[in-house]
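G., before I forget:
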Amino acid sequence: MDLTYTEEEEDFRARLREWLSGTLPALPPKPAATDWPGRRVYDTGWQRRLHDAGYGDVHWGASPTTRLIFLEETEKAGAPYVGANFVGLLHAGPTIAAEGTDAQKERWLQPVLRGDEVWCQGFSEPDAGSDLAALRTRARREGDHYVVSGSKIWTSHAEVADWCELLVRTDPDAPKHRGITWLAMPMDAPGITVRPLRTLAGSTEFAEMFLDDVRIPVGNRVGEENDGWRVTMVTLSFERGTAFVGEVVACRRVLGELAAHARKSGRWDDAVLRRELALLNAEFSALWRLTQWNVSEAQATGGVPGVGGSVFKLRYSHARQKLFDTAADVLGPAALDAGQEWTFDRLSSLSYTIAAGTSQIQRNIVAERILGLPKGGR
Amino acid sequence: MHFQLTEEQRALRTGIRELLDGRFGRDALRAAVDRPGELDRDLWAELAGAGLFGLCLPEDAGGVGLGLPEAVVVFEELGRALVPGPLVATFLAAGEVPGAVTGETVVTCPYGALLPWADAADVVRGDVAGALATESVDPLTPLHRVPAEAPVPQEATLLYAAEQLGSAGRTLEMAVGHARQREQFGQPIGAFQAVKHLCADLLVRVEVARAAVYAAAVTRDPVEVAAARLLADEAAVRGARDCLQVHGGMGFTWEADVHLHLKRAWVRAGLAGSPRDAEEVLAAAL
Ligand SMILES: Cc1cc2nc3c(=O)[nH]c(=O)nc-3n(C[C@H](O)[C@H](O)[C@H](O)COP(=O)(O)OP(=O)(O)OC[C@H]3O[C@@H](n4cnc5c(N)ncnc54)[C@H](O)[C@@H]3O)c2cc1C
């Protein structure tokens, strides 16, 4: 058990720190959390800077430890997070890198890394959420195109995306996991209607998508026809395995800010509140160590993160909600001001136990795939 | 950074687990329950012979020369098997009290307001004036109450946390084993989601506690020790309770081992220092 970093890793950290301290002051002001067109410009601009400085591919090109250091340092320095580039950098990109042809890698990876193109994820449908494999959006083959009709829902950043990782049903007669195909859909293709949905936090971060005879070249298919479920599992393991790591560092920062706020306002004298903050400190300190444990394991076994990501995601999503509930306790009446940053975060945190697989689904995964309990009997 | 067990640490874990499986399995555990207050001196000598008490002592002092992470790995196994006796106190006395390393001298001392195994021990350290015997909730840990609050060294807190972790891991295994094998409504109860989710949460608490305990053993940082302690207590106490729930009526019997884990988890939490103090350490660090 070793928690020290190699000389090479420490060098990477030092260079990154120096670069961040030179770069961050020159960034334009952050757009409002609800302004997605503004955030697209801001987030892709940041990705461009990372790319030009040689850090563009850190999310999937670098070793897990290097990536961990990157997330730790950028978050500590208050740098922007992946934001609108989330899907491209954290799941479509890694999926194409793992499953795509050389031509596909050539076409799609660089633009994501340069911050030129933004992706969204068209998996969920109105009648297929937790039961994702029940999806019904149809794709029929016409020559060298798929013609797609159906609808998608909860598609994050659809409004500002250039590409969509889309799941379609190519064989309606096959068992439901077998007839699915993974396609890259250009968001400017005719027949796509995006209707933004307002979240409970007031922002329009996701949307409904209506697809009406959208023509997608067969060359945009990643993996074989009807083999999309397997490809999807690769995508989801990236989503659950590593997508929240940087946020743990952010939560630890918020915790420190909460304590400072409480000390200033006098709330600190409340032993119950102090206890809440103490337990959160224990929680996030352990979640960080668990991250290092998982990363070390991934580094040793190489490649795609395992179901351990579900363990992390389960605990983290609840801890995040507790954190911002406690923030409301620290703020007192000010917590009811919707313009307060922590209030917005508190509202946003409500999605964490739902998005990327609900807590109930994660528990099923842990129980069945890690503990080997039988399926069924629901 | 390679935050995983090394080959040597894994071998150490396997070694002690095999020793305990053979020497302190279910029958021995239940026999000990039937002889409360009696310490198995032969087992104690065997543990000493395997190097337990001298694990962290330098080799020229008759020890094995390993570190706190290795001690934590070993105490996790001791906690898993519910080995009785003043293990932590004797371990920490090795090198100071003659005969502790070799197992000839059993040492205890008070932690907080509690003194375990006072009658069975050869040496009682610390201020125990006015100690009063209590009827211990844990049949495998006789207790006295002492009027003067005794300090709890950081290593003791961490070793108890390691034992809690082992106990939590064991109750997880027991719960999952039972959920696979017990049938109701024509299928294993583990197929029911309400049961499945209890088991999943058990695992999550174990994994989080393990990361915290191991990290604290590596860094020895007082804030991390406090965190490890609280998370390991939670994993052990909640783990035993949820394991009991999964066992249904059987779990509520003296015959099942679940209550032994729960009661020992309570006692360890009582011996590891005040949880309020740990919380204040964590709060002050913010
Ligand atoms: C902020 C946000 C962003 C999102 N972004 C995207 C995106 O970009 N792309 C995309 O494709 N999707 C996205 N989603 C969708 C998300 O993946 C789904 O909401 C999620 O998988 C749950 O599906 P559902 O909403 O249909 O709920 P349902 O599946 O209808 O679930 C409703 C309730 O029933 C429970 N439930 C369902 N099945 C079971 C079961 N087998 N056992 C126990 N309980 C069960 C659930 O846990 C939940 O409590 C996003 C969601 C949110 C909230």
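Chain A has eleven helices and eight strands. Chain A touches chain B through 52 residues (CB under 8 Å).

More on Monday.
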